[in-house]
Amino acid sequence: xxxVVTHGPVWLLLLCELASPARRLFMRLRKTRMRLETSxxxxxxxxxxxxxxxxxxxxxxxxxxxxxRPVVFGWVAEHLADWLPGVDVRKxxxxxxxxxxxxxxxxxxYAAALSRSGRTLSLDRFxxxxxxxxxxxxIVDVATHVLQLRDVTRSNGLVVxxxxxxxxxxxxxxxxxxxxxxxxMWERDKFLALSRALMRRQLxxxxxxxxxxxxxxxxVAREGHExxxxxxxxxxxxxxxxxxxxxxxxxxxxxxASSLGVPTLTLFMRRGLARxxxxxxxxxxxxLPPALVPSAALRERLWKRLLTVRRVxxxxxxxxxxxxxxxxxxxxxxxxxxDTAQATxxxxx
Length: 349
Known about the structure:
Layout: E1 4-7, H1 10-18, H2 20-29, E2 33-36, E3 42-45, H3 50-65, E4 71-73, H4 75-79, E5 88-89, E6 101-104, H5 111-114, E7 121-122, H6 135-146, E8 172-176, H7 188-200, E9 204-208, H8 218-222, E10 226-228, H9 233-241, E11 245-249, H10 252-259, E12 264-267, H11 271-277, E13 284-287, H12 296-306, H13 309-326, E14 344-345
Parallel strand pairs: 3-4, 3-6, 4-5, 6-7, 8-9, 8-11, 9-10, 11-12, 12-13, 13-14
Antiparallel strand pairs: 1-2
Organism: Caballeronia concitans
GO molecular function: ADP-heptose-lipopolysaccharide heptosyltransferase activity
GO biological process, one term: lipopolysaccharide core region biosynthetic process
């Protein structure tokens, strides 16, 4: 069916294949186990968001560690191909119906076309992928308990390429003040105030925005702040890797910084989101607004006002101190397997 060997009653497997709603129901009621055929052609279709793709690469890395050779699709992997040694990254064009098994985190608009059967193995159907666990832990659980992989890691396999020097600019703080979800974006004026506070500390804040956002930040550049709009994600990765710290909203670039081992401070609107979506690889911390409002809905509306520049600077100072103490334990820059470190969630008050 999907190029896998499954374990379970035949009637259950047939029913799950015949009816999509029944399939979802049974997969939630029963933990399904399966083993990919080593001889089958396997593809992993990554979703468009940067953070989701970097999390999906954890599965790719684990498949490779266990002897499989998946072909990986998605624009994030394309842009970061030089950072993914040993990963077969391709574009979907020319691969229609080429794979026995196509795995995706959740339904995309291109994955089904890659499958010979027209069906995909969507991880969000499994109970291991649900709940309040961190997203990386969900992938690890799927790899371990569903796909039954034996050699499992939290790392997504990103490696800093030769020619890129980690932490090259000792005073540079990369800042990502935007994102794809406006409700998750801290106020622009506060980011500018944060930049000025960092400058007073003899640090070099460097804003990163997308090329399409640059017109809205021209005035900031004219005021003397450094603003960069780099065209490719690989260029952004280089800029972040050669910085010494990263500060940003709950967005994909925080996950990228964490993947590269750059100490990362992430601004979240509420604790529940931070538990599941905090950057989960390199050293880092999460800063939240103080818990002054009882309602979750109200906290989401007011978090930008409640989270002060002073609070973010205090969290950054703590991160600086922690990363300095851990610097002597860093692995060689040419090959860093960021595997076990997780972000700290700072207290609400």
